Amino acid sequence: MKAVLFIGHGSRKREGNENILSFVEKVKQTIDVPIVETGFLEFAAPTISDGIDACVKRGADNVALVPIMFFPAGHSKIHIPHAMDEAKEKYPNVRFTYGRPIGIHPEMVNILQEKLADETMLPEEGDADTAVLLVGRGSSDADANSELFKLSRLLTEKLDHQVVEISYIGVTKPTVEEGVNRLSRLGAKRIIMVPYFFFSGILVDRMDEKLSAFETEYPGLDFSMTKPIGFHPRLEIILEERAKEALQGNASLNCDMCQYRLFAVEHMGIDHHHHHDHDHPHSHNEDKEEAVQTVKGERP
C-alpha cells in the first residue's frame, strides 16, 4: 500500500505548524494515495520518524517522503535522507523513496505574480517607480541561495522586466536591510517586500518589525508587504507532482549516495535526531564550516 509523508520544517510558533497540518489535510483531497501523513523536521510533533511509523502502522509498504521546502539545502540534502536511512533499517520490508523540494517551478512564478497583482495592485506590465524585494530564508548552502536569484529573474521576465531584487532574512547576504538600501539608492519610490516563506511564523513576525523600521528610516518611500505564500491552489499542484514523482521513483534529487551527505553523517554528528528544540549551543552553519575546513585539510 502506498503512502506519502509530507515533511515540514517546523516552527516554534504553533500557528505556523497548524498551517502546515491544515494544508496537508487539504492536499489529501487531491492525491490518489490511501495514506497521507505529516512530519516535522524540528520544533514540532509529529516528527519524521513518528510520521513514518504512522504510515507503516496503517499498512504502507511503499512510503514516499516529500519535503515541503522551497529549495534543496542542508535539511533536504542531509537530515531528511538520514532519517530515511534509519527508517530503512527499522523497516527493511518497506520501500522508501524521496521526493524533490518545490524548487524552481513555473507555478511558483505564477503565484508570485498573482500575489503582487491581488495584494499590491502591481500591474502585470510592471511599474517603473516600483521595486520588488524578494526575501528568502537564507541558507549556509550556496546552491540553495542561488535558486532565489533564478526565481527573481523569472519573475522579472514575467512582469515585463520589473525591477526585482533579492535579500535574505538570515544566515547569508544581502540582508533585507541591504536590499532596501540598494533599492533606495537606485531611485525606487515604492518598495514591495515579498516574504518567500510558506506560512506565518517567527520569520514573518521579524518581517513585520522590519517593515515598521523601514517606514521610519525611509519616510520618503512607500513600503508594503505581501502575505507569505500560504494555502495557494497552485502550491497543491506542485506538491501533487512531487508526490507522484517520489512514488514512481522518478525524483531527480538523489541523496542516497551523495558523497557530501555521507561525509556529513560521518564527520558532522548528523546522526543525532533532528527534532530537538535547538537549545544546545551548536549551529548548523558552524557544522558546515567545520566540515568544509576538514575537507580542505584546514583541520585535523
From TrEMBL:
Comp. bias intervals (Basic and acidic residues): 278-300
Superkingdom of source: Bacteria
Gene3D superfamilies: 3.40.50.1400
Cited SUPFAM superfamilies: Chelatase (SSF53800)
Residue ranges, annotated region (Disordered): 272-300
Pfam families found in the cross-reference section: CbiX (PF01903)
CDD domains: CbiX_SirB_C (cd03414), CbiX_SirB_N (cd03416)
An example molecular function term from Gene Ontology annotations: lyase activity
Keywords: Lyase, Metal-binding
InterPro entries assigned to the protein according to its UniProt record, in alphabetical order: CbiX-like, Sirohydro_Cobaltochel/CbiX
UniProt-listed PANTHER family: SIROHYDROCHLORIN FERROCHELATASE, CHLOROPLASTIC
Protein name, per record: Sirohydrochlorin cobaltochelatase
